[in-house]
Amino acid sequence: MAATTDETIDGTLLDWLRDAHAMEKHAESMLQTTASRLEHYPELRNQIERHIEQTRHQAERLRGCIERQGDGTSGFKDTTARLLGMGQALTGLFASDEVVKAAAASYAFEQMEIAAYKVLITAAEQAGDPTTKEVCQEILAEEQAMAQWLDENLPGVTRTFLARAARDATAKH
């Protein structure tokens, strides 16, 4: 027996919510590693630490949306996402320009999250799930705010890095 359109939409929304939960776990891991290495960039470190807390709360809210639908998160996806986040953050350890690359990667990741939440909002609308839609709209606003902060501050991080590098300081982090 073929699934109805409503079942297909609900199942797809649930899959995408699990993916978003795993994405937030990935972000948390990546951001924690990055923040722990930012010695000479206190504004960037403080903003990332604030966003880590938001990210944890976002994962909790997504878990609530998933559980409301009578299901659970994917342990496999969450574990894989955490490992990928650690791996991604660790790749910058050997780059002389780690801080700039980490800030640029964070900006790019925020853009991906923004797209994911726009998709989730539309899927929640189609599924007739106003609570999930509201949660995703709240998270979208947080991701947009972080992306905007990075957009506005990436030039300053770059200038600080270049000034430190010109003084032969430990500019890396």
From TrEMBL:
Classification via SUPFAM superfamilies: Ferritin-like
Family annotation (Pfam families): DUF892 (PF05974)
Domain of life: Bacteria
Signal peptide, first to last residue: none
InterPro entries named among the record's database cross-references: DUF892_YciF-like (IPR010287), Ferritin-like (IPR012347), Ferritin-like_SF (IPR009078)
Protein's recorded name: Ferritin-like domain-containing protein
Organism: Rhodoplanes tepidamans
